[in-house]
Amino acid sequence: MTQDTVRLTTAQAIIRYLVAQFIEIDGVERRLCGGGFGIFGHGNVTCLGEALYEVRDTLPLYRGQNEQSMGFAAAGYAKQWLRQRFMFCTASAGPGTANLLTSAALAHANRLPMLMLCGDSFLTRLPDPVLQQLEHFGNPALGLNDAFRAVSRYWDRITHPAQVIQSLPAAIATMLDPADCGPAFIGLPQDVQGWAYDYPTAFFEKKVHRIRRLSPDTAEIADAAALLKSAQRPMIIAGGGVQYSRGTAELTAFAEAHQIPVVETIAGRANMLATHPLNIGPIGVTGSNSANAIAEKADVILAVGTRLQDFTTGSWTAFAKDARIVSLNVGRHDAAKHMSMTVVGDALRGLQALGASLAGYAAPADWTALARRERTGWDEYVAENVSHGNGPASYAQAIGVVNALCHPRDRIVAAAGGLPAEVTANWRTLDIGTVDVEFGFSCMGYEISGGWGARIAQCEREPDRDTIVFIGDGSYLLMNSDIYSSVLSGKKLIILVLDNGGFAVINKLQNNTGNESFNNLFADCPTIPQPFAVDFEAHAGSMGAIAETVTSPAELGEAFKRAQASDKTYVITMKVDAYEGWTGEGHAWWEVGTPQISSSTKVSAAHIEQESKRVRQRKGV
């Protein structure tokens, strides 16, 4: 019996396979790959470009302005879809592909699916060395694309067309696996892309995927339940994994059934509404007094869907040294960290199983009441912090203005710098899953690009809602070209540029460790003889956005209303103070390296102060 085949190039086979992949989400079948972001060059235009042209109406290709920003957009898209769908990025051989390294690292750190289809040197090596090829004298097989091994969950180089039959399903399986989820990289040598092969037609038949839910081991559940039942001061740390498991309702039900206070990580912001009485606030270095106050008293901590990074744990000073941790995580690697009692499993199913085993248990009423009082105190602080007229214009005031005016289902995007910390501390969640604070890789430049990717995804489900980007002037100057992308593609963003004259949050860290301001604020750069203000309004306007500049939070509110009414990307700029107006409460200790010796007495004193707080740090974690 002869197997039916179809003759295709390697590139054509890859694209035809992607078109045939679907996923079931809430009973609805959707194409698994939402499309792609691409910048063509040698290495991807002639073969992959030809294949993509044939499906341009089925698998939309968004033209990027920068490969790194394309990867950020793909990450923002994946976050909005809760890792249930992904975008691909295609780049040419050489520097185009190299530009994707940072965004691949971001996707890797955040456990996000992203497929990279990147050009590579000729397999035959007949034309070597080719344009932009990196030569390794003792290893001719080693090239730039090998750098992606460190930032990919799946990595392959196609050296024969038949390899696609194994490589593509493996890449997709990795991207859809809740435990191993992350970016997949496929290197495509320029000659191999165009080579033809007789592929089995069955390879291209429609396939509907479903994301696996891993049920926890009954013995691990029993051990965890026994420990939780012994708790007098239990606490739940809710991470981003709760949302990715679509387990936010189960989290709330579990907390209510057992009256256990919940605190949120940065990735877990918007797991619960701000008004829920058991939501005690964000925890850690960028957290709240309320969450950190109960964290240091808790005797048993249930960590759900979090990798417990140092901003969450205060570099492991946030908890009592004798506190016991139960870690419920779908990833064995994350569940087994930090001397935790391990429960490997899906967050939703794990909470359900634990809830059944904890039937009849409730945290002591005085403990829950204490947690609620702490949250009330924090709410009062935030209300004052975000109010107008309490000092110079600040990040917190801008956040308060938007929080009061936006729709509950609008999506908020922020990334590295001062704004994610301020959003984490001051934003009051209006609806579940509406906040994306990129601190997994803490990557400047994500904001506008990630917002664009999120907006593409948002338009597929909630087109009437807005994606709102908070960005500082430093990140704006680092990466802003997707303002143009959003205008070109008709994917409206509302972007708030809060200008404090440089990298003010790192200047704050510099000052807090006794150092003089140096090379962070433009005014403190010796190599800048005459600093001048950037006209962000004119710059954004030149890329097709509607733009305006305001001078106060009150004016910001009126401008934001105009932005809401607009059908086009809208950029609002406001200056904020670089030194005053920071959220001064709620911070846990954070370990940073400080000089043991210095000619500066301020630096030496700051080192002693920093090290004095290490006494609370847990060891052996």
Strand order of the largest sheet: 5-4-6-7-9-8
Number of helical segments with 4 or more residues: 24
Q: Give the CATH superfamily of the largest domain.
A: Thiamin diphosphate (ThDP)-binding fold, Pyr/PP domains
Strand content: 15-25%
CATH class of the largest domain: Alpha Beta
Q: Into which percent range does the helicity of residues fall? A: 25-40%
Number of domains: 3
What integer is the average pLDDT?
Answer: 96
Largest sheet: 6 strands, parallel
Q: Characterize the overall form.
A: globular
Termini Cα gap: 60 Å
Poorly predicted parts: none
CATH fold call of the largest domain: Rossmann fold
Which value, in Å, is the CA radius of gyration?
A: 25 Å
How many strand segments?
A: 23
What CATH architecture of the largest domain do you see?
Answer: 3-Layer(aba) Sandwich
Could you say which structural class the secondary elements and strand pairing correspond to?
alpha/beta
Question: How would you summarize the topology of this molecule?
Answer:
Layout: E1 5-9, H1 10-19, E2 21-25, E3 28-31, E4 33-38, H2 48-54, E5 61-63, H3 67-80, E6 86-91, H4 95-98, H5 101-109, E7 114-120, E8 154-157, H6 164-176, E9 183-189, H7 190-194, E10 196-200, E11 207-209, H8 218-229, E12 234-238, H9 240-244, H10 248-258, E13 262-264, E14 279-282, H11 289-295, E15 300-304, H12 310-313, E16 324-329, H13 332-335, E17 341-344, H14 347-357, H15 365-385, H16 395-405, E18 411-414, H17 418-426, E19 435-437, H18 446-459, E20 467-472, H19 473-478, H20 482-489, E21 494-499, H21 504-512, H22 536-542, E22 546-550, H23 553-565, E23 570-575, H24 601-612
Parallel strand pairs: 2-11, 4-5, 4-6, 6-7, 7-9, 8-9, 12-13, 12-15, 13-14, 15-16, 16-17, 18-19, 18-20, 20-21, 21-23, 22-23
Antiparallel strand pairs: 1-10, 2-3
